[in-house]
Please model this.
Amino acid sequence: MAQAYWQAEVMAEASFSLFVRRLPTNRGYLVFAGLEDILDALNGLHFSEGDITSLRSMGLFDEGFLEYLADLRFTGRVRAMPEATVFFANEPVLEVTAPVIEAQVVETLLMNLFNTHTMLATKAARVVEAADGRTVVDFAARRTQGIDAAIKFARASYISGFAGTSNVLAAGRYGIPAVGTMAHSFITSFDSELEAFDSYAASFPDNSTFLVDTYDTMEGISNAVVVAKRMREQGHELNAIRLDSGDLLALSFEARAMLDAAGMRSVQVLASGGLDEFEIERLLRNGGAIDGFGVGTNVGTSADYPWLDCVYKMVEYDGKPTMKLSEDKETLVGVKQVFRRVDADCKYAGDVMGFADEPTPDGTEALLSDVMRDGKRLQDASSLDELRERCSRELERLPAHCRRIRSPHEYPVGVSERLEARQRQVKQDLLRRIAGTE
Amino acid sequence: MAQAYWQAEVMAEASFSLFVRRLPTNRGYLVFAGLEDILDALNGLHFSEGDITSLRSMGLFDEGFLEYLADLRFTGRVRAMPEATVFFANEPVLEVTAPVIEAQVVETLLMNLFNTHTMLATKAARVVEAADGRTVVDFAARRTQGIDAAIKFARASYISGFAGTSNVLAAGRYGIPAVGTMAHSFITSFDSELEAFDSYAASFPDNSTFLVDTYDTMEGISNAVVVAKRMREQGHELNAIRLDSGDLLALSFEARAMLDAAGMRSVQVLASGGLDEFEIERLLRNGGAIDGFGVGTNVGTSADYPWLDCVYKMVEYDGKPTMKLSEDKETLVGVKQVFRRVDADCKYAGDVMGFADEPTPDGTEALLSDVMRDGKRLQDASSLDELRERCSRELERLPAHCRRIRSPHEYPVGVSERLEARQRQVKQDLLRRIAGTE
Model:
């Protein structure tokens, strides 16, 4: 496609808008994540000698075009919402204005990064909401869709409020707290569960969590209590036990009772195994005696809805508004802005999409701002802790009924008068042109 | 966990088994993929200086242990089914025998690679089955869960029988045929659809597919016919038109009729947009006039079931069989083999899991063989085309009722007498030990 542009000398500046057409089922909002990776990718955009050789070997490309590609860098402008902002269906989250080939060749990369980070950050935020103040940690790395996704999930879930990750690689890369996990194989490599717990306690005297379901959960809790008492005699405290199978609700009551009876009130009960926001909410609604959750596969793949209906659409070419009319997929024309109304309690009260050059209406905040100009980043990267704080603040400002994990209310998003009028006019012109009456 | 092993001097040889506990809904089989990546990962296993520094900075690890890690390489033995073999629930696909820490530290990496490749290869094989001989190509890269997943999907889907990929990076890396796609933005950057088609045809005179739904699909098909006639006058043929929205079934009839009426019988009708194996089956059952399919998000994320219930469990430690008893999660002990019965028609007729040292029963094939010894690969990597042929042969040999995309029959998998007896005995011993009667 880029070659067809190049050969037709279609090289003018174009603007593209990145947005989500429909929110996934049960989502009342999305958490924008991935901006840092997107900016890094745009910044580093180039085709290496190896890439060019590989493209040449396909026999599809003109030599002049390959030379053009070898020199291609991203020189455009990017406007975006800050990373960790909450947003809604149809709102432009990020807009690119650049020579059309540059803006086009980054489509797949940009959409993929946006989709992965944002979907995972949103799923994680829902889990944090369901956990209602209890600790949640990331155990997903074994079954995410690729190693890349595991690292992104560790980052995205930390932004959304997780306490740590078992993914040591991601912990090191991003400075996320690492949480140790003990697998069943650790237990089965010892002659007895007691011996396995003793050994683990010797290695991590102040930071141990015992997995108690390898053979028989009730017996496992008893063994944990035995070892916890030995630890206490030596001046250490067991941190937690972890339930990983069976009826987690019933077992949590038993575990809590046994620990309390043994004077181990400070030892936490953690739960894991097939959890997601729906199951966590059910456990807590039924009074589950659970202090923290380890979540894996269902959350790390956003299993109930493993993608976003995101698109990257041309909204302006060579100064003229463009749109796609395909059934149910009509796009809003022009370079846009999102104005967010804030009420007296500092809560978000509704958004209006307008043109980027419209004045910001009173009582609203304009969400998109320049983050890249002439292909150069304008700000330093935000730290992960800044993003985490922003995300927490954003979710607080969102009305509670939009945060519900089932059947949330729809947050109101409208279109400015100017945008609506222009949209109507461009559409009429297009329809006339298609009908050949122009 | 590795540190706890190290400190407790638990360093003996262990065997781990990689298998899938339950097949995902509607799956009658799985296609094993990812072996090449797994062997590469084991081969390259090491902790770099940067990794060690990062681990040290977490403050959790003993200096002696970090020194041990810095020298750690994978020195074990791996037995596996050949990549592209079909397999079923509970069957060991790959087994690792190595000093326990080595075997343990590779768990996450190994499971992640296996899960991603195998899930995606299986999903793609189902699409090929549904497409019933028609061409299928990969359009998924925009919305897979990470760039990594996009590349893996391009590879896995080619093994499973896709004809090509729009992922130029993957096409170059693996030598997969690249298929061009035109986006709606290409159309909207021109003053008219006709002009856009003309330009594309000029760039790819013998390899053009026109996307016809940007404004109005019927009008788009008319425009495609106009340009196809111009191409024909110049000695070229339009390859195809592509429908990407609306009622694909109804539009396929209209498109076919209009193309045929214009003498364009050789111009193919392709369909894309939200397709998966279920929708493709529905379109074809209803006689859809569609010659090929482009599949994206739903297939590239295995959206109806975006993970495998795969596990990596210790089955032997220091020569002794081990097992986990957790509710519904009991594992089979010992280093195993899968014997596959082949009937007179060369079809697969049932599998038996036994110990690796059992003699291969008459009329069966033993599926696992050594692929790595002392940390070294024993064979050269298979070419992608070899894997593709093997996959095709494997699926042919599988009974048709096991290949159905809805409610497939369960393929019979049993356990050898020796394995069954030993399993019972180990379990009894364990239960006795837990009950404290031993």
The two ends of chain A are 28 Å apart (CA to CA).
